[in-house]
Amino acid sequence: MKARRNKKQVPSFRKLLKTSKVKLENKLKNKQFKQQSTLKKYRKEQRKLRQAVKDAVSKKPMPLEDPKDKRPGKRIEREEEEEEEALPLDMMDEDDLQLMRDLGQRASFLTRDLSSSEPVHAKKRKHEHVIDKYEKIPRTLQTAPEKELIHLLPIKDKSGIIPQTREKPVTDSEQDGEDEEELELEEEIVEDPIRELTLEEHLIERRKKLQEKKMHIAALASAILSDPESNVKKLKELRSMLMEQDPDVAVTVRKLVVISLLELFKDITPSYKIRPLTEAEKSTKIRKETQKLREFEEGLVSQYKFYLENLEQMVKDWKQRKLKKSNVVSLKAYKGLAEVAVRSLCELLVALPHFNFHNNIIVLIVPLMNDVSKSISEMCCEAVKKLFKQDKLGQASLGVIKVISGFVKGRNYEVRPELLKTFLCLRIKEVEVKKDTEDINKPKKFMTFKEKRKTLSRMQRKWKKAEEKLERELLEAEASESTEKKLKVHTETLNIVFVTYFRILKKAQRSPLLPAVLEGLAKFAHLINVEFFDDLLVVLHTLIESGDLSYRESLHCVQTAFHILSGQGDVLNIDPMKFYTHLYKTLFKLHAGATNEGVEILLQCLDVMLTKRRKQVSQQRALAFIKRLCTLALHVLPNSSIGILATNRILMHTFPKTDLLLDNESQGSGVFLPELDEPEYCNAQNTALWELHALRRHYHPTVQSFAAHLIAGAPSEGSQALKPELSRRSAAELFQTYSMGAMTFNPPVQSSSSKKKSEVLQGDLFLNEDLNQLIKRHCGEVATHLPLDFAKYLKTSLR
Q1: CB atoms < 10 A from the CB of 77, how many?
Q2: Which among 37, 340, 722, 783 counts the fewest CB atoms within 10 Å?
Q3: Which of 683, 614, 684, 621 is nearest to 650 (CA)?
């Protein structure tokens, strides 16, 4: 009985899913509409009845005036009262009137509803008179005001549920003689006109509303965080605020609720996936704590599902760009809501990869990675990259890779390259996944019974048995993933990645996705199956020879080919000379401007092609590459020059005989041909590295130190040796360290200190010597002061 009672009180999981606020609102609207239509019909019938009574009264002969009522005002008032309160009782006989009074004493007559009377809804007949039709309608006596029942909360007893009601008197607010149009006019006159608010008052009112909503959201969120199991129902109340209808604060409130629910779900969501209960589990008796936990899990999953549906609907509204009937949110505000919804989905994708509906989130996010809006596309791509980087087990990454591969194929490879660039963040290396679990704690071998009997006493065997039992339990409690399972997931993931790459290489060679494909192949080339090596190298060489690739794409092709050959491809008998020739030819095509993006790939290619394959590289080839790299260092940015000179330093250490380039004397016959694109036949041994002397006067101090170091023969000790922070770093690390992408100079430029002038120059030192003497002579003359006599001038003028 107890289990059944709980089932009746608590709604089941299916009912929670089926319950919809939209359905409840529709039911309420239908009920109100029915009440309004019934009221309109009732008023229309009353008007018809009053009109019929007026017609009957007008046809009836008017009686003579009462001699007592001779005052005209009183007679006019009585006529108005007769017109307004005219009843059918005036035109009845005494027998009919007595019959109506007898019927009025019966309860059945009093409780009868005029709107449900049959004669009112009967069809009109032409021969039936209006008065005869009216006579068939029963009347109600105004003996007492009508009562309206108010339904209260029911009381539950052992016998069952007892409904509770209360009567509420209905006041007659309108008179029967007023028409509906007159009522509306009177209401408009009675109501006070709404005063229009100024802009300042409107902003103050909006601020007050917004503050109230914020406090309400904060109160609900605090209650849920304090006790999630007891207050899980408040998630529904908080989620209902996503349907805010106040146009002043609707957009802001919805954004706040979305962010609040996001943080709540991240905090209260358990670290395991919740599955639906089976029928057997539902029928078994459980404790109150377990029942409470089940109710919490069911409510959490249902509200989380509805929350994801709301986020999806926000994105769809923005995509469709259609206004809803409520017209609360404008078209411009849809984008802001959609961005908040997408950001929330990205956060959930990264934060809850283990929880329910994670695959549904992936299906929503992947199409948005190819969105026209750059901000939304970048947001989704960054979320997927973050998920790939933190996913150790590989299950979540596998789900995302499957969806991306299907999406790219469904769009016929017409997608943004950023989708495929996310593959570069996959954690496929075996060491990174397992170094903290079974690689360090290897499975312990337990002693057999015979070994124990030979080496241990009886008491020691007893203790050993208990110790081994405890260790087995601890190993089971760790629940660490097995190596086989991880390798299986990674293998499946890589298969899907390579299938996507090979499809693009085969069907869409001129697609903008090709650089991302080549970059991905260069990274994962050591994991490709040996069976594909021959075909893949042929495809790469064909792409290079076609001439349709940019220099960056060509570098990726070369890098991929040598990654293949440096790994499992060592067993293959393939001559990579054509790839060396192509790289030697491409060096002078690198961009020397601010982009500078191809140099990093070049440094990686040189490391794989020359340093790691030193045994397969001839001296002529090494000399040609060192000479061309020094020439390239003259016209690139400082960080690129540092990376190239660091590569030359490594090559000079790897191939000691290349120091002949530091000597002016030529070795052997022939002349150096710098324009020849064949490194084996350009006679690089007959030239010198004169570029290093130009680089010693470079404006960057690190370039100067590298150039001086190479001129001295790249010594590891002495005055010309490099500092440890320069010599211990690779070329790619130095390239990144001295990059000026952040508009900063490394090392920082020293500010020039202003020196104080020892002596202040006088003004006459700036003048010419002759002019200076002339000024002194005029200044030295003694002025003769004569008395001023103005009278003589006056006398002269009078004459």
Answers
A1: 11
A2: 783
A3: 614
Question: How buried is residue 69: exposed, middle or buried, by Cβ count under 10 Å (0-12/13-18/19+)?
Answer: exposed
Q: pLDDT tens digit string along 703-756?
A: 999 999 999 999 988 888 999 999 899 998 999 899 887 778 878 877 655 554
| SS3 readout for 666-724 | CCCCCCCCCCCCCCCCCCHHHCCCCHHHHHCCCCCHHHHHHHHHHHCCCCCCCCCCCCH
- List, in sequence order, every residue forming a beta bridge with 167; answer none if it has no partner: 149
Q: What tokens does 734 get?
A: 């130095």
| CA–CA dist 687, 667 (Å, integer) | 9
Do 300 and 235 form a contact (C-beta atoms < 8 A)? yes
Query: Average pLDDT for residues 328-336, to the nearest whole number?
Result: 80
Q: Residues with Cβ < 8 Å from 779, sequence gap 6 or more?
A: none
Within 8 A by CB and 6+ apart from 775, the residues are 767
Judge whether 576 and 556 are in contact, CB under 8 Å: no
Residue type, 421: K
Q: Which amino acid is at 757?
A: K
Cα gap 401→419, rounded to integer Å: 10
Q: Which residues contact 315 (CB under 8 A, 6 or more apart)?
A: 338, 341, 342, 364, 368
User: What gap in Å lies between CA 321 and CA 326, rounded to an integer?
Assistant: 15
Please provide the distance, in angstroms rounded to a whole number, between the alpha carbons at the two ends of the chain.
149
| Conformation bin of residue 670: beta by default, left when phi > 0, alpha when psi is -120 to 50 | left
- Max mean pLDDT among 84-88, 182-186, 545-549 falls in 545-549
- Determine the Cα–Cα distance for residues 518 and 550; give it in Å rounded to an integer: 12
DSSP assignment of 136-169, as one string? TS-----SS--EEEEEEEEEE-SS-EEEEEEEEE
Q: What digits encode the pLDDT tens for the residues 30-62?
A: 888 888 888 888 888 888 888 887 776 665 455
Q: Before 747, cis peptide (omega within 30)?
A: yes
The residue written with tokens 């109501």 in the block is 191
Q: Measure Cα distances from 711 to 655, 666, 720 in Å.
A: 16, 17, 9
- Beta bridge partners, 148, equal 168
Token look-up 């069952």 returns 160
DSSP 8-class letter at 111: T
The dihedral region occupied by 171, where left means phi > 0, alpha psi between -120 and 50, and beta the remainder, is beta
- Measured distance CA(703)–CA(699) in Å, rounded: 8
- Percent of the chain whose predicted confidence (pLDDT) is above 70: 71
pTM beyond cutoff 0.90:
no
Per residue in 626-638, pLDDT tens? 999 999 999 899 9
Tallying the residues shown for the chain, one arrives at 799
Question: What span, in angstroms and rounded, lies between the C-alpha atoms of 358 and 349?
Answer: 7
Pick from 242-246, 283-287, 603-607 the range whose average pLDDT is largest.
603-607
Question: For strand 147-156 and strand 161-169, is the pairing parallel, antiparallel, or unpaired?
Answer: antiparallel
164's CB contacts (< 8 A; 6+ apart) are 151, 152, 153, 154, 155
What does the angle CA 647 – CA 648 – CA 649 come to, to the nearest 5 degrees? 90
**At residue 764, what is the residue type?**
D
| Residue where the block lists tokens 């005494």 | 94
| CB proximity list for 387: less than 8 A, separation 6 or greater | 349, 350, 353, 396, 397, 400
Q: What's the rounded Cα separation, in Å, for the pair 226 and 600?
A: 52
- Using CB atoms within 10 Å of the CB of residue 574, give its burial: 0 to 12 exposed, 13 to 18 middle, 19+ buried: middle
